[in-house]
Design a protein that fits this description.
Layout: H1 2-21, E1 29-30, E2 34-35, E3 43-45, E4 51-58, E5 61-71, E6 79-82, E7 84-87, E8 90-93, E9 95-96, E10 101-104, E11 110-113, E12 119-121, E13 130-133, E14 139-142, E15 148-151, E16 159-160, E17 165-167, E18 173-180, E19 183-193, E20 199-203, E21 216-217, E22 224-230, E23 234-239, E24 244-249, E25 258-264, E26 270-276, H2 279-282, E27 290-295, H3 299-302, E28 317-321, E29 326-330, E30 335-337, H4 354-360, E31 361-367, E32 369-370, E33 375-379, H5 384-392, E34 399-403, E35 408-412, E36 419-421, E37 428-434, H6 446-452, E38 456-459, H7 467-481, E39 485-487, E40 509-510, H8 513-519, E41 526-530, E42 533-540, E43 546-553, H9 561-572, E44 582-588, E45 591-597, H10 604-609, H11 616-636, E46 651-653, E47 659-661, H12 666-670, H13 701-716, H14 733-742, H15 746-749, H16 754-758, H17 760-773, H18 784-792
Parallel strand pairs: 28-36, 40-44
Antiparallel strand pairs: 1-13, 2-10, 3-4, 4-5, 5-6, 5-9, 7-8, 10-11, 11-12, 13-14, 14-15, 16-25, 17-22, 18-19, 19-20, 20-21, 22-23, 23-24, 25-26, 26-27, 28-29, 29-38, 30-39, 31-37, 32-36, 33-35, 34-35, 34-37, 41-42, 42-43, 43-45, 44-45, 46-47
Helix pairs in contact: 11-13, 11-18, 13-17, 14-17
Bound molecules: 2-acetamido-2-deoxy-beta-D-glucopyranose (NAG) (11 copies).
Signal peptide: 1-25
Protein name: Receptor-like serine/threonine-protein kinase
EC number: 2.7.11.1
């Protein structure tokens, strides 16, 4: 018994202490009394000391005070009411400096004056005889007749308290949310007891009172009566016929043990909160505000208006955890909540051409998120790859939303609004972000990434997952970041494409055979094999694990060792976004290996001749990419490199389907003398220029010829040589394309390809360029510079001469 008694005694002492601290409680506040923000008389307490009316310092501004009613017994001093003044039809919280004075004047009027003596606030009320701070949290001006002339319960801010009633009546009874918990400025939500009898929740445009479509309503037009916060801990809306529509409920009927409030929070949710009053209860309940009931339950789903930001602010997204009744606001990866200093915002320049855009930006993925608004373009049917690409190359596009079940893609611009994440959202959001230079080592599994960013805010929580901690989190993040997300780019350097940044041009690394054997798990996975050797997949275990392709060169003679080193150095210093990059090599005894960056999307061979026809725009992009890569090899790098083996198998695609030429620079290694007649034809049937079969010098024009073949294949999505085609005229594409071109029937070449038909002029231009490249006489063929200009449409394309003579010389 003894310990138990001692415990009770302790509780009793604590209760005594609590009461002694409330000893200053006022009864009647007489005329002539005044308050100042600083000094002993800064507030008037209610008899119980539960509530105080007076000046509250504004968080984050020591020289600014709010005129407010607050819970005085709890350490947070939670504000339940604050004065607002209106100017130009806009209400805003009254905030005054420290030497302001609030006085209940001798004439019975309450008046707040700033240090210069100007009245900054006064309730619209007739003369009072005295004032009282009531134990309900209501501050009242009482007339000589003993009747209330004005009370804070009449003009609620964002909170209502037990016994408070908002009747349907002469004037709108409105709760307006704060902007954020620490900023009492007008927020983005309204709760209105309308004169027409309807109780309605509205999102509103910031800095205005414009109301969007409601996100909740009682639907009691003509019949609604009043919103009641009953002292039993229940908030309901009464209807004239006597029915009560439940809004929220404490769930515990012990008002004596808890402080109670219901607040329209900054996220638009109306939540009822409890705080344990007595020390007894505090042994069970944590000393903090706990949300026990809320409406609407899932704000993320509730708001769906065409304008406005939604629950979380622009560019963020909302997620509701039903197990905890908790709403969180998150920023997408590479975005962060705004702070006062604007982030280093580098939007995509509209001057970038398609390829530059692809080089500088990429799309990262978040599943199960949607921003239902801000669409400006829709595509269907379409695949995800094309959806990504169309957004990357469009400077207006900030994100694309892809729905796999309907093959639909929506392009969206900033700011994004009404973001919502839920398992039921059957969409994938692709967010445009600047490329980092080692994309291959960063798996783009969206979800794991955003979890790392601890930049979010949370409101509301269940009974026992106290809300205060979470609310503090909100306070902290809101204080620092505000309510909007902005794109955050930590380093401008990341925006530069690897090719343009001088520091990335490192000499190729020398690997040991053992290292590469380990990296490829003993040359286990074969990616492909050709005349020059076999290619294996591997993984470098550096600080950033990088996927690699390791080429084992087979037909290399011992005496070419010196040449190998020279060539490898040349290849290793050849950088272009349309060339596969050589990362390193191995030269041990007879083992010669080249280590390349790994290209995730395979070769043009699979891309073009696979089951599904790739999109026209993607094919155009590949054509331009290959042309630029060849132009670089032929004319722009320090020593001219003739590829000699341009074919679809040697054109690889990265994860954004950027074309990259592989195997360049190997021609010299594999042949003793490039200008000699080539005897053992390496090239693949259908791609080699006629001069290979003649005794004339080999020049860069052999690559131009091969490019011409590939260009036709890209336009028509078929192999140059398809002998199995029944219609013999069509079995060799280069002949057939020439025939079609001469007859003005390009449409036959792209039969059944709606996209290409839609772009038939461009298709015709590409065929014309191809026919120029396929000229029998090498000198007649254009240079790659000319080819790129013709493809771009920068120069006129003369009608190509009929190259029918080449028929005789094709293999
Ligand atoms: C407050 O003033 C009213 C009216 O003068 C009076 O009836 C009441 O007893 C006073 N209450 C207190 C606690 O002084
Ligand atoms: C504070 O208020 C009390 C009671 O109204 C009054 O007696 C006292 O003089 C005031 N103190 C100051 C510093 O104004
Ligand atoms: C603090 O509040 C005063 C008005 O009371 C205002 O003039 C001042 O700009 C505020 N300071 C900050 C840092 O917000
Ligand atoms: C008001 O209530 C009555 C009786 O319940 C009902 O018939 C009527 O439709 C209601 N009015 C509106 C506008 O809902
Ligand atoms: C609260 O409910 C009780 C019983 O239902 C009722 O008597 C009382 O008037 C209600 N309070 C308010 C403020 O409506
Ligand atoms: C009272 O009115 C409400 C709304 O108008 C309606 O939903 C409810 O059924 C009515 N109840 C009765 C008992 O008439
Ligand atoms: C409203 O809540 C009260 C108390 O929790 C309950 O008795 C009543 O049935 C509820 N009314 C409705 C319509 O759900
Ligand atoms: C969440 O809220 C609903 C409705 O207010 C309630 O029924 C449910 O028990 C709550 N869940 C938790 C975990 O608090
Ligand atoms: C990008 O490349 C630069 C220079 O090569 C390097 O310093 C930087 O760490 C790289 N950034 C990333 C994200 O890998
Ligand atoms: C292309 O790469 C992307 C991203 O790595 C991948 O999702 C897609 O499946 C790849 N497509 C093909 C055809 O390999
Ligand atoms: C290549 O062969 C040509 C003609 O046969 C000759 O003139 C030239 O010197 C040779 N070059 C080399 C590097 O062997």
């Amino acid at each position: 018994m003894a310990p138990h008694l001692r415990w009770l005694f302790l509780q009793f002492l604590l209760l005594l202490l609590e009461f002694s601290s409330a000893a200053q409680a006022q009864g009647n506040i007489t005329l002539g009394s005044s308050l100042t923000p600083q000094g002993p008389n800064s507030s008037w307490l209610s008899p119980s000391g539960d509530f105080a009316f007076g000046f509250r310092p504004v968080e984050g501004n020591t020289s600014s005070y709010l005129l407010a009613v607050w819970f005085d017994k709890i350490s947070e001093k939670t504000v339940a009411w604050y004065a607002k003044s209106s100017s130009d039809g806009q209400e805003s919280p009254v905030q005054v400096p420290s030497s302001s004075v609030l006085q209940l004047r001798d004439d019975g009027l309450l008046s707040l004056r700033n240090p210069s003596g100007d009245e900054v606030w006064s309730p619209q009320a007739p003369s009072a005889a005295y004032a009282r701070m009531l134990d309900t949290g209501n501050f009242r001006l009482v007339g000589a007749d003993g009747k209330a002339k004005w009370e804070t319960f009449d003009v609620p801010a964002d909170t209502i308290l037990p016994t408070q009633v908002l009747p349907v009546g002469q004037q709108d009874k409105v709760l307006r949310s704060r902007l954020i918990p620490t900023d009492y400025a007008n927020g983005r939500f309204l709760l209105v007891v309308q004169p027409d009898g309807n109780l309605v929740f509205y999102p509103i445009a910031e800095h205005s009172t414009f109301q969007y479509d409601p996100y909740w309503a009682s639907n009691t037009v003509g019949n609604g009566s009043r919103l009641v916060f009953n002292e039993t801990g229940r908030v309901y809306f009464t209807v004239k016929n006597g029915t009560q529509i439940n809004i929220t409920s404490a769930g515990v009927n012990s008002m004596g043990d808890f402080f109670n409030r219901a607040t329209l929070d900054p996220d638009g949710v109306f939540r009822q909160y409890l705080y344990p009053k007595s020390s007894m209860v505090r042994n069970v309940w944590s000393s903090r505000w706990t949300a026990v009931s809320s409406i609407p339950q899932d704000i993320c789903q509730a708001i769906s208006v065409k304008a406005g930001s939604g629950a979380c602010g622009f560019n963020s997204y909302c997620t509701f955890d039903g197990t905890k009744n908790q709403t969180s606001c998150l920023c997408p990866q590479r975005y962060k909540f705004f702070d006062n200093e604007r982030p280093d915002f580098v939007p995509q320049s509209c001057d970038l051409d398609e390829e530059a855009a692809m080089a500088e930006f990429e799309m990262t993925l978040i599943n199960s998120v949607d921003w239902p608004q801000s669409d400006y373009e829709q595509y269907s049917p379409i695949d995800e790859t094309e959806c990504r690409r169309l957004c990357v190359i469009d400077c207006f596009c900030a994100t694309a939303v892809f729905q796999a079940s309907t093959n639909t893609c929506w392009k969206k611009k900033l700011p994004l609004s009404n973001g919502n994440m839920a398992e039921s959202v059957d969409r994938t959001v692709l967010i445009k972000v600047p490329r980092s230079n080692n994309t291959q080592s960063q798996p783009s599994s969206g979800s794991s990434k955003w979890k790392k960013d601890k930049k979010y805010w949370i409101l509301g929580s269940s009974l026992f997952f106290g809300s205060s901690v979470l609310l503090n989190l909100l306070l902290i993040s809101i204080l620092l970041f505000g309510t909007y997300c902005g794109i955050s780019i930590t380093s401008k350097k990341k925006l530069q494409s690897p090719q343009s940044s001088g520091s990335s041009i490192l000499p190729p690394k020398i690997f040991t055979y053992n290292e590469l054997e380990k990296a490829t798990s003993g040359f286990h996975e074969v990616l492909g094999s050709g005349a020059s050797g076999t290619v294996y997949k591997g993984q470098l275990q550096d600080e950033h694990p990088t996927s690699i392709a390791v080429k084992k060169i087979e037909k290399l003679q011992q005496e070419t060792e010196k040449e190998f080193m020279v060539e490898v150095q040349t290849i290793g210093q050849t950088f272009h976004k349309n060339l596969v990059r050589l990362l390193g090599f191995c030269n041990e005894g007879t083992d010669r290996l080249l280590v390349y960056e790994f290209m995730t999307n395979g070769s043009l061979n699979e891309f073009l001749f696979g089951d599904a026809r790739p999109h026209w725009s993607l094919r155009v992009q590949v054509a331009l990419g290959v042309a630029r890569g060849l132009l670089y090899l032929h004319e722009e790098c320090s020593t001219q490199i003739i590829h000699c083996n341009i074919k679809p198998q040697n054109i690889l695609l990265d994860d954004n389907f950027m074309a990259k030429i592989a195997d360049f620079g190997l021609a010299k290694l594999l042949r003793a003398n490039q200008t000699q007649t080539y005897t053992g034809i390496r090239g693949t049937r259908g791609y080699v220029a006629p001069e290979w079969f003649k005794n004339i010098g080999i020049t860069s024009k052999v690559d131009v010829y091969s490019f011409g073949v590939i260009l036709l294949e890209l336009v028509c999505c078929r192999r140059n040589v398809e002998l199995e085609i029944a219609d013999e005229e069509r079995s060799i594409l280069t002949y057939w394309a020439n025939d079609c071109y001469r007859c003005g029937r390009i449409d036959l070449l792209v039969e059944g390809d709606d996209e290409a038909n839609f772009n038939i002029k461009k298709a015709e231009r590409f065929v014309a360029v191809a026919l120029w490249c396929l000229q029998e006489e090498p000198t007649m063929r254009p240079t790659m510079l000319k080819v790129t200009q013709m493809l771009d449409g920068a120069v006129q394309i003369p009608t190509p001469p009929d190259p029918s003579s080449f028929i005789s010389s094709l293999p």
